[in-house]
Amino acid sequence: MGKNITEILNLMQKNTFDASAGGDSHVHASYKGMRLSSAFQPIYSLSHCRIVGYEGLLRATIGEAETIVPTEVFGSARSEVEIVQLDRLSRALHMHNFASQHDDMNWLFLNIDPKVIVQGKYYGSFFKDLLDYYEMPPSRVVVEIIEGAISDESQLSESVEFYKKLGCLVAIDDFGAGHSNFERIWRLAPNIVKLDRSMIAQAVDNRTARRVLPGIVSLIHEVGSLVLIEGVETLEEAMIAIETDVDFVQGFYFGMPEANVLQEKQSKQIADLFRDYHDTMPQEMHYKKLSKHIAAFAEVVSKMQSGFAMEQACQGLLEIRGVDRCYLLNQYGIQIGTSIVVPSRQGVADIRYHPLADGNGANWIRRPYLRRALNRPKELQLTRPYLSIANGKLCVTISIAITVLNQIQVFCCDVDWE
Predict the structure, then answer these.
(1) 271 exposed, middle or buried (CB, 10 Å; 0-12, 13-18, 19+)?
(2) Residue 312: how many other CB atoms lie within 10 Å
């Protein structure tokens, strides 16, 4: 066993055990008059409706009552040597207290101070010795790194590779706070990206942020990383987490940090969230909100298949509030003729988008409303809200693939979403 880990373990072993806080093997340590201990906050997989990991969190007190927040604890470490020692002591506490509770399945998430990530290698080996001492498989440890706190790109990449080669998973922490950027995510390819609480808080108050968040999650998934959203504290925030398709959640709404890991790992709470989500799924809500438009759209389709010209068939649909335009595409995505725009909107709602108003001959092959319609002929399709290139407003598109004069065509209608 290495000298560094022996010194750290001795610091813990000199302190008392607290049977009431987690059995006779739950240890504490002293640091500059503060009593340090571990707490574990559960991390849930939404799809599995159960706990899949715990984040080890440092708890510090002075005397009987005064609580010291972790930032103040680490702020008391004045030198680089002290920071390295305190960080290692914290991780050793979490490792011991987690291992002693005989959870043989779930991940242990461990934060590492940015300064230690950069300078720790100059103070001798520690982390591998710690894993070996507690016989903790590296595959069950998730190392959390705050990417925005490390300005040295090469050092950040080197650290991520070190923990990956060790066999651990790597999580980028607090993404979305400060100067986080996707370029680093693409380059580092972490196993997990933890979204900062500010992102879900903004999604509650800002409709644009709420619409954009699922796209951010999707982009991170395409990089090859799983997504965890932290700081979920309310029912509304929990429902947003469900909507965004994140993989994991963490926060007071799902579980408070405790000295003991939870014995009940299934979550009826998440199952109930999914039940409520099913009843209010965005797609279902869109259908309800646009029920009048959809009924009129179906009537237009019926008329067109009976031989009516599109302009004549669309008259009733164009009179419904919110309808912007109707248009027809061939099976290759090429628009046939100009769009039929609601008379009051002709000339474009926002003159700044005038160069884009005429869609005759435009190629919309990339649009989801075309591809989905062609893949499922005769079935009505409805998009998520998106920005219309024709007028610069959020819209949804209703579409359907039909056969007109023995040719496959896709009939579309854009409706304002606001």
Answers:
(1) exposed
(2) 10
- Residue carrying structure tokens 């302009």: 311
Beta-bridge partner residues of 227: 193
Q: What is the pLDDT of residue 13?
A: 56
Whole-number pLDDT of residue 3: 67
302-330: pLDDT as tens digits:
999 988 999 999 999 999 999 999 999 99
- Helices 207-223 and 197-205, interaxial angle, to 10°? 140
Domains of the chain, earliest start first = 3-280 (3.20.20.450), 286-416 (3.30.450.20)
The string of DSSP letters for 379-390 reads S-EEPPPEE-TT
Q: For the chain, what percent of residues have pLDDT higher than 90?
A: 53
Mutual orientation of helices 268-279 and 235-244 as an angle, nearest 10°?
A: 70
The C-alpha atoms of residue 35 and residue 64 are separated, in whole angstroms, by 10
Angle at alpha carbon of residue 268, lines to 254 and 45, rounded to 5°: 55
pLDDT of res. 120: 64
Q: Position of tokens 């500010």?
A: 198
Write out pLDDT tens, residues 263-303. Answer: 777 778 888 888 777 666 556 667 778 999 999 999 999 99
Token match 């709470």: residue?
Answer: 269
Residues lower than pLDDT 70 in the chain:
1-3, 13-24, 120-123, 147-151, 178-180, 278-285, 345-351
Closest by alpha carbon to 254, among 231, 277, 274?
Answer: 231
Strands 248-250 and 34-45: antiparallel
